[in-house]
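Weekly modeling sync, notes
Attendees: S.R. (lead), two postdocs, one rotation student

Agenda item 3: backlog of single-chain predictions. S.R. asked that every request posted to the team notebook include the full sequence so nobody has to chase files. The rotation student volunteered to paste the first one in as an example of the format we agreed on. Action items at the bottom.

Example entry:
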Amino acid sequence: QAICDRVAILRGGVLQAVQRVDDLTHADFRHVTLRFREPVAASVLANVPGVSAVSSEGNAIMLQLAGDFDPLLRAISDHYVADIDVQDPSLEEVFLKFYSADGSAPELANSRAGGKLS
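Predicted structure, as returned to the notebook:
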């Protein structure tokens, strides 16, 4: 990941994506850590669209977010947010999404629809 400009992902002998590393790692989901002034129940995020893999530790809630931040921010608007940390997935995590457990390749917005290959 540190030395690549572009990456090609093959699955079953079929080219799934050829994209710049930055575009590929920004395309699917992000890791988000929310730190609150006081502990907040992770159940606050139970029905938020795009939120998954929710866990909590002390005053922090860690999650994966696919899509927009707005539904997440609305869900936590009643709580004092001390800090938000957002990290893009690693190239390995994106690769593993292509090889999901159910055998289907997940969609990435530009990878199959003639995405930009700069």
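Discussion: group reviewed the output briefly. Residues 101-118 have pLDDT under 50 and may be disordered.
Action items: rotation student to repeat for the remaining queue; S.R. to check formatting next week.
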